[in-house]
Specification:
It is built from 13 helices and 13 strands. The protein is α/β, with parallel strands linked by helices and 365 residues long.
Length: 365
């Protein structure tokens, strides 16, 4: 198939998803082109795109916020589609790219939208209702919607998004994390008896790293062997370090896949997630997981992951108690089977949706 992928946040989990999906689709013989925004591109994403054997690639500056600049972006997208196409599938990733794709002129193409965390999943904010109305109106374009977790799909259904064309395809891993626990702990320079609680993600409001740091600080007060290891960077780094004190170490942005085997527990304090890659990697390693109520939990638990799910608004005290209880349990969790988490499975399921959507497009459905 002739496939065009379009993405605005060129990095993070959605960027990783697009790179992995493109590589898998190309490996299966499909002709894949990519349009991406340099505005928020991360260096690793640009390097990964440069290494992909894409049929064509184009840069299109897109802003995360909504404004008059989106009119220019839509016209630019139409020109790129006309120049790089024709396509059978045009697949927008993230809210902004998804909106532009659904409004774009793409003759003969079936349109697909993967939100990578619908804005309405956020538990607070006045923009939540505005985003929900906008998503509902855009859903009337007839594009198929791919949620990356059952939890995200449930939110989509509540807001009336493409009920007849709503699909669930969980994120998959292209590279499994390292299982070398000794090497990971040597790199992190932790004592042999340390009880390491790991955090992986951007240090931003959505991930609520300050709450994680406070919870680990409380757990450390109860058991001095407890130490928090935080992998990631962001605008809340200073506040997080201040809250965690000596109980927390900030390792900065780096490849977490080489270090997660050194954790004794993986913890997530996000306010919302659609399907976190870090949590999938923790499950692949067989780590016990303590998390707030986010997307992707049900899929991982069905495949054998040991996850303690707390309310999205759980207090640091509640989190600390759950962390200590998970560390003290005698139950040894097993790694989730790799086939249940593979990128090949994700790509195969996505292609089936492409074929169905294109068939409906051809008959005018």
């Amino acid at each position: 198939m002739r496939i065009l992928l379009v993405i605005e946040p060129s990095g993070g989990g959605s960027g990783r998803h697009v790179v992995d999906l493109a590589r898998a689709l190309i490996g299966s013989g499909h002709q894949v082109s990519l349009i991406w925004s340099p505005s928020r591109a991360e260096p690793w994403f640009e390097a990964a795109v440069a290494a992909l054997p894409l049929h064509a690639s184009g840069r299109l500056p897109m802003r995360r916020s909504v404004g008059p600049w989106d009119v220019a972006a839509l016209h630019a997208l139409n020109r790129l589609i006309a120049r790089l196409g024709p396509f059978e599938i045009v697949h927008g990733h993230s809210a902004k790219a998804g909106a532009l794709v659904r409004l774009a002129h793409a003759p003969g193409a079936a349109k697909i939208y993967t939100p990578h965390a619908l804005p309405m999943m956020s538990p607070t904010g006045s923009s939540k209702t505005v985003a929900g109305i906008a998503e509902f109106l855009l859903a009337q374009t007839g594009a198929a919607v791919i949620a990356v977790s059952e939890e995200e799909a449930a939110v989509a259904r509540r807001w009336g998004l493409a009920r007849q064309q709503l699909h669930v395809v969980p994120n998959g891993l292209a590279i499994m994390p390292s299982t070398d626990r000794q090497a990971a702990r040597l790199t992190m320079e932790v004592p042999h008896d340390a009880r390491v609680i790991g955090f992986v993600g951007r240090l931003c409001a959505q991930k609520d790293p300050v709450r994680f740091a406070r919870a680990v600080h409380l757990a450390h007060a109860a058991d001095p062997r407890v130490i928090g290891m935080m992998i990631g960077d962001g605008d809340l780094a200073t506040a997080t370090a201040a809250e965690g004190g000596a109980a927390v170490r900030l390792l900065g942005a780096r490849d977490a896949r080489t270090l997660m085997a050194g954790f004794d527990l993986f913890a997530m304090t996000s306010r919302y997630e659609a399907c976190s890659y870090a949590m999938i990697e923790a499950a692949a390693l067989g780590l016990p997981i303590v998390t707030t109520d986010v997307g992707g939990i049900d899929h991982l638990k069905q495949n054998g992951a040991r996850i303690d799910r707390l309310p999205s608004g759980a207090s640091p005290e509640h989190l600390a108690q759950a962390m200590l209880a998970a560390l003290d349990t005698s139950v040894v969790p097993l790694p989730v089977a790799h086939h249940a988490l593979s990128v090949a499975r994700m790509a195969d399921q996505t292609v089936e949706i492409y074929r169905e959507a294109f068939a409906l497009r051809r008959i005018g459905g």
